[in-house]
Amino acid sequence: MEKNSDIEIINCKNCKKDLNKDIFISNLNVCPECNFHDYIDARRRIESVVDSASFVEFSEEISSYDFLNFYDLKSYEERLYEARLKTGLNEAIVTGNAKIGGFNITLAVLDFGFLGGSMGSVVGEKIKRAVENSIKKNIPLIIFSASGGARMQEGIISLMQMAKTVSSINRLKENFIPYFCIITNPTTGGVSASFVTIADIIISEPGALFCFAGPRVVEQTIKKKIPLDFGLAERNLKNGQIDLIVQRKDLKLTLTNLLDLFLNRDF
Length: 267
Known about the structure:
By secondary structure, the protein is of the alpha/beta class. Helices cover 35% and strands 19% of the residues. The chain is globular. The termini are far apart.
């Protein structure tokens, strides 16, 4: 990163071209040259899709605990502390009530910056509470996914969140409450194989990786080259794994139209 007069210049991670940082940020972290959708944190994402000042967070008080005394290169407790400092979040997901296009919704947004958006016991619990909130208020649930999968530091407890979240979402279906999931880069592992894939409408941002195992792992396992677009949104759309690919700037309008279709349906 370098300075050019009063303009701060950054490089696109994809096309490597020089970009005006202010323009990049105002464009929701999307490269104006190649349309690469870069990482955006949970708070900014929420601001980009909800009606102004409509988001009211809930369940922000619950946080993960190192009940296994897990240690790899450092302790899980230390990793949690560092993640909280880095992101300003208490966990890898933010949940709350909001409005989009005037429609009341429950919103849950995973943040990849917090331990890779990994799903541990608290992420599973917050999704369950988000579902309960939707059922209680009879309002749709919208989840933005961004995750490397289950959180290994919580062992089998993290894997159990797959069953917990799926069974929770099934309660939404039993109550005929709409559920939309927006896939962002990357969405893999136990998250991609649980609550993400059972939404009524599955949307993806352009170029987002959405698969169970990543391309490198698959190649190492099968000892063969795989297609260059393996797991990418465009290939998933072609194969029917997702319903729509939507530019980040157009997500709010798309969600508004879907909410209008589902909530004002006459069928």
